[in-house]
Amino acid sequence: MGQGTPFEMVSRDAELRIARARELAARFPYAAEALLFYCHLAPFSGGETDLRAIVTEYGPPALRDAALTGGEPFNSFRDFMLGEHVCSEVLIANGAEYGAFCGFCARFRTVPRAQCIYCQSSDVAFFSSESLPHIRAQVCEQCRRYVSEVDVASDASAVADLDEIAALPLDLWVRQSGYTKATRNWMGL
Ligand SMILES: [Zn+2]
Ligand SMILES: [Zn+2]
Predict the structure, then answer these.
(1) How far apart are the CA of 121 and the centre of ligand 2, in A?
(2) Which of residues 82, 101, 120 is at a domain's end?
(3) What is the domain count for the chain?
């Protein structure tokens, strides 16, 4: 992913990502804590001490407590931020372009539409909600896993992996319907 690629809008620079996180936090109060925390994480570079300091000051309560006392969920979060991470993928639709994107390393891979990205089954269905019409969840009836899909063409200011956090109710609905998210995002969701 470099400048000028069809997907430059999803990687964006830190300032644009932070602006989007603030806008979403104002619109969706239930996701505000995570999104505002993200504003402090977006420009982050450093080691465990620096990360622990940010979490202690701005993190959600569970993460903050764990950062002070040690243990989970801080350790998983630290490993995701500082170590090798399993890419947390979101499907991105941008007109004819389509693929799976990880917001943390900006890794993008082209994948077929309407096909499970884990078991390749075409037996998939979609869940959507009215509050965020550009986001839907693609569920697989074979392996029962799901992934979020963000149509960035229909919302010019969308940042796929941040918008996904604002779609938390959709996430919960899909889970309650018996599907499991294959790759967790940086919030552990
Ligand atoms: Zn990644
Ligand atoms: Zn599958």
Answers:
(1) 5
(2) 82
(3) 2
Distances (CA, A) of 128 to 101, 141, 168: 20, 16, 12
* Ligand 2 ion: residues within 5 Å (CB): 116, 118-119, 121, 140, 142-143
Q: Alpha helix locations (H) across 28-136?
A: 32-41, 48-58, 61-69, 74-82
Q: Which ligand is closest to the CA of 121, given by its number?
A: 2
CA of 180 to the centre of ligand 2 (A): 10
pLDDT tens for the 189 residues of the chain, in order: 333 344 444 456 778 889 999 999 999 999 999 999 989 887 778 899 999 999 999 998 889 999 999 888 898 888 888 887 888 899 999 988 999 998 877 888 999 999 999 999 999 999 998 889 999 999 999 999 999 999 999 988 888 889 999 998 999 999 999 999 977 777 766
